[in-house]
Design goal:
There is one protein chain. By secondary structure, the chain is α+β, with helices and mostly antiparallel strands. The longest helix has 22 residues.
């Protein structure tokens, strides 16, 4: 890949990270080592760095090539009694903190299945990763960040 192509790709990522950083009054840096499900359904590590906005104590916001994710935790006990109707408008994944390759909510799972998976886990806290398309407005992502902060999510 040519430097010009890399600059074009990263210019867009950097612009979105700047918007979110300014809206949320948070800093960001570039980090690699994020995992995504590959075509086979197995997790694969990405070696390239992406911008990550850190809302200290609340969440990380990862601005990736194929979308934006907001990652935060909830204590297992809090997750089991949380009103997930408050998150009905959002697409999200749920997985372990210590065993982060353990999915608690697969595509198509009901909330009851997710809660049963959490109940059966030995995790003390559960990761939630909220997914947005690349073109999502910073204000839309900010709205979720403020909601999860109010609801006791942490990072």
């Amino acid at each position: 890949m040519e430097r010009r192509q890399l600059n074009a790709v990263y210019r867009e990522l950097d612009a979105k990270a700047q918007q979110l950083s300014e809206l949320l009054h948070a800093s960001f840096g570039y980090y690699n080592g994020h995992y995504h499900k590959g075509p086979s359904g197995d997790y694969e590590m990405d070696h390239y760095p992406i911008p990550v906005i850190t809302m200290r104590g609340v969440c990380d916001i990862e601005v990736d090539l194929d979308g934006i994710s907001v990652t935060a935790k909830l204590a297992r006990a809090d997750a089991l009694r949380f009103d997930f109707g408050k998150l009905a408008a959002y697409d999200f994944e749920v997985y372990g903190v210590e065993n982060y390759l353990d999915d608690f909510r697969a595509e198509g799972d009901t909330m009851d299945v997710m809660l049963e998976n959490i109940r059966e886990s030995k995790e003390n806290a559960i990761f939630f990763s909220f997914c947005f398309p690349c073109e999502a407005a910073a204000a839309e992502i900010g709205k979720l960040v403020w909601l999860i902060q109010k609801e006791g999510f942490f990072y």
